[in-house]
Amino acid sequence: MKSYKVIIIILVLCLCIGGISYSKSITKRSVHLMDDTPKNAQIFRYHFVVIAQNINETFWQSVKSGAQNAGQKYAAAVEFIGPEVQDDDEELKYLNIAIACNVDGIAVYVTDKSKLSPVINKAVERGINVVTIESDDKNSRRKAYIGPNNYEIGAAQASLVREAVNGESNVALIFGGNYAENQDSSEELLQSFKKSIESDKNIRLKSVKNSGSSYFGAEKIIRNILYDEPDINTVVCTSSDDTLEIARVLLDLNKTSDITVIGYGYSSQVRDYIKNGVIFGSVYENPEKTGSKSIECLVNLLNMKDVSSNINTGVYKVTRNNLVSNSDGL
Fold this sequence. Notes:
Layout lengths: L1 H15 L4 E4 L4 E5 L8 E3 L1 E6 L6 H16 L2 E6 L6 H13 L4 E4 L4 H13 L3 E5 L10 E4 L2 H15 L4 E8 L6 H15 L5 E10 L4 H12 L5 E4 L2 H13 L7 E5 L3 H8 L5 E4 L2 H16 L7 E3 L3 E4 L11
């Protein structure tokens, strides 16, 4: 009886996962999305699923935007799903549902390789192309990885610390966002950061912290630093949400002159903080590009085109000096 209920749930989810009526033929697959008027009916050739780490994060909403824009370009129905807070088991559930629905392709963020690798392999064995985004799983049978290079991010952050420092700098590196729960990605970034500052005796990495999946985790960390670790005068962030929360706390406490912030992301709020000197600078990637490239890659795979196994979406830096003219990657 239990297995019967599971089958029923999967069938219902396949029908309701994105409100899409999905049909397959030998020559093409069409998805009809109807609104109030027949004129606005659209016919899609492909059906793709993007599985995010946390659908509520600003970063992942930008990935969604890029993927859906690319979906319009390539006549692809793109469903964006994932947990509302980081949850390996929920990601696994969505991956299994996508496989059961026999979609044309899957783009997935990999948190726990031990759990997701066998399921990624199962999808590929069943003829479903899978690409990883933002976090790779090289040992799986995924077709490609789309996202930034973690070593480049670590080096860019160290470069901004060096630009910001006048005298000695004691640094706290705060892992948040995509890096909070992914050990491989955070370790790559950490090693790159360490290597980039090892020749500079004025810069010391004093603390490595993790804000977790909670938005207010960064607030707790920066308050603890201010009151318990007064020797730390530089904070480096790896997520846009953490950057904004730390900047807000420093402003509220009138402590912006005590801590140099190296942020992450390129939102309008981050740019405003840089302009006003609350944040020295920011390292960023283009999440919309990650979303669009993932769909482009899945389309190319279906059409038997050559696809690179590693698609680097780029890493960029911005400070007040290049704030007005900076548009790299965006």
